[in-house]
Amino acid sequence: MLQSQLFTKTKKESPKDEVSNNAKLLIRGGYINKEMSGVYSYLPLGLMVLNNVIDIIRQEMNKIGGQEVLMGSLQDPSIWQKTDRWSDEKVDIWFKSRLNAGGEVGLANTHEEPMVMMMKDHVNSYKDLPIYTYQFQNKFRNELRAKSGIMRTREFIMKDLYSFSTSQEQLDEFYESVKQAYVNIFNRCGIGEKTYVTFASGGIFSKFSHEFQTLCEAGEDTIYVSEEKHMAINQEVYNDQVLKDLGLEKKDLVEKKSIEVGNIFKLGTKYANALGLTYADQQGKKQDVVMGSYGIGPGRLMGTIVELNSEENKITWPKQIAPFDVHIIGVNLEDEKVAMKAKEEYDKLTASGKKVLFDDRENTSAGQKFADADLIGISERIIIGKNSL
To answer: Domains of the chain, with CATH numbers?
Structure first.
């Protein structure tokens, strides 16, 4: 891509209404545009990075047997009432509206209930299970405060995976495969070393759920880290009994700030029972389907990566998710030999299958080009000018 044709421009100054580093740099680099508090649009460079993150997640979900679907965002209150999750007293982040034809409608903040209702048309026998369905879908959450850039927004894309199994044992086996898939995702996105499988509350469903927490001073969570075992405990379940259960000692743990980049839950039969999702077992007896839920926000992950890989005026993307493989910076392009060499390198790399951004802008100083390149953050650069022919 020719940079002269890129409609977005870098900005010298940080936006005054942003406090998070990821939002400041992504706006300055021309990656995102702020529409309103908690709502951001992804510009061409930003969408390239986001899609690269999504591609990595999709590949790992497919490897463990996930089947991708796409469900609606508009929600029928009746199914959420059956699970006692429609009232604002129980779930205080709903966005709700009214239909012109009458009645309420919600904008999905998650999809357990709709996914269960869909499965009722496809699950009859134990032979139909297990099923693992996932999607990349817009979610809406009426957050009281949205001040962490793209890491906490009111509208965002979520990868939500749901598992449907015949037994707790079948769920447990798949749960472990998802845990490893998440580890693979964070490794491939370049933050694996700083991301810990973290024990958190399982709520009414199980003793523990698992979060994936990335060490970062910009984080909203506090965790206690065992560097030796590469695991951690969330502050909410940090007590002597949990330490004993996990075979850990306080003296071996370090308190850290962190960002939650993923979570996985065992849901049991709560939603299947409330909504009537059953299967016939080998004896023909009806049984409730056993479920799990597994989430990652690609935008939140992207924001976390920026927080970890940035300086005051610079982003450095991990190669796997950068918008381009190579950034060619042409200086002294008024010189015909320089211009020809830069174009030749651009054509050669593009023909070889590389994704290349070529700064072909004329009447732009070398200093400005280098400053822009720092904000754009592609780590592989080729600088072509009079002194480098």
So the answer is: 21-313 (3.30.930.10), 324-388 (3.40.50.800)
